[in-house]
Design the sequence.
């Protein structure tokens, strides 16, 4: 395991006692985007811990996820966000966020500012300290969130754009030791989920049913939803 993984994951084994990531992340076989029938107003807007537990961890382990194509696999650091399909920015209540699995880019410090490079016309700059992401109401740190902003041009003199990224990476300390072979360790080190938000997109009205997409899908897999309507 790399030093960056060890240093940022501050939990001890005792702090995770009783927490079984394999068990709590288990979902029934997921659906394709086109197969999901939701009432008007529902939006794909998972919390940070849901992204880490139900999507990123299951992606790393090649296990079932609630849905299979709402989070695409794209090397977002290889392109300007303007090159991403407009149709991907359709999530959250504001219709302005896109979600991607990506290979984590290494940090680079230039003139006291931490940035991540992009190869086509700009760079991502870290604008806040990395934050711990807790699982639900527990004290279990399931991952870490880093917030970045995209600048066009060359660092450190780039121009701000309306694109903001929340990058989520898994805490290796919560992954059961018996599944940590070299392949899984490499995937944990490299794979992240990136939520990219285009701040220029204006808010659009959405109906709030008071229940997230993941909860609805879990009820559907349990047979408590019929034609998109909770029983």
Sequence:
């Amino acid at each position: 395991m790399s030093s960056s993984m060890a240093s940022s994951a501050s939990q001890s084994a005792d702090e995770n006692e009783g927490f079984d990531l394999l068990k709590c992340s288990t979902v029934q076989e997921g659906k394709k985007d086109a197969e999901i029938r939701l009432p008007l107003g529902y939006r794909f807007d998972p919390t940070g811990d849901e992204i880490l537990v139900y999507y990123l961890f299951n992606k790393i382990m090649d296990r079932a996820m609630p849905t299979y194509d709402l989070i695409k696999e794209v090397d977002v650091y290889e392109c300007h966000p303007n090159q991403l399909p407009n149709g991907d920015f359709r999530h959250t209540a504001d219709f302005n966020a896109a979600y991607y699995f990506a290979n984590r880019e290494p940090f680079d410090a230039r003139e006291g500012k931490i940035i991540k490079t992009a190869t086509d016309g700009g760079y991502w700059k870290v604008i806040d300290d990395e934050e711990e992401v807790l699982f639900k109401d527990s004290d279990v740190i399931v991952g870490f969130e880093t917030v970045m902003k995209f600048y066009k041009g060359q660092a450190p003199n780039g121009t701000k754009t309306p694109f903001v990224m929340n990058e989520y990476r898994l805490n290796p300390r919560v992954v059961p030791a018996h599944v940590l072979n070299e392949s899984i360790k490499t995937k944990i080190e490299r794979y992240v989920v990136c939520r990219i938000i285009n701040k220029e997109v204006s808010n659009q009205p959405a109906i709030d049913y008071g229940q997230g997409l993941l909860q609805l899908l879990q009820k559907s897999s349990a047979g408590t939803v019929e034609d998109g309507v909770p029983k």
The longest strand covers residues 141-152. The chain has a mean pLDDT of 79. The two ends are 46 Å apart (CA to CA). The CA atoms of residues 124 and 150 lie 4 Å apart.
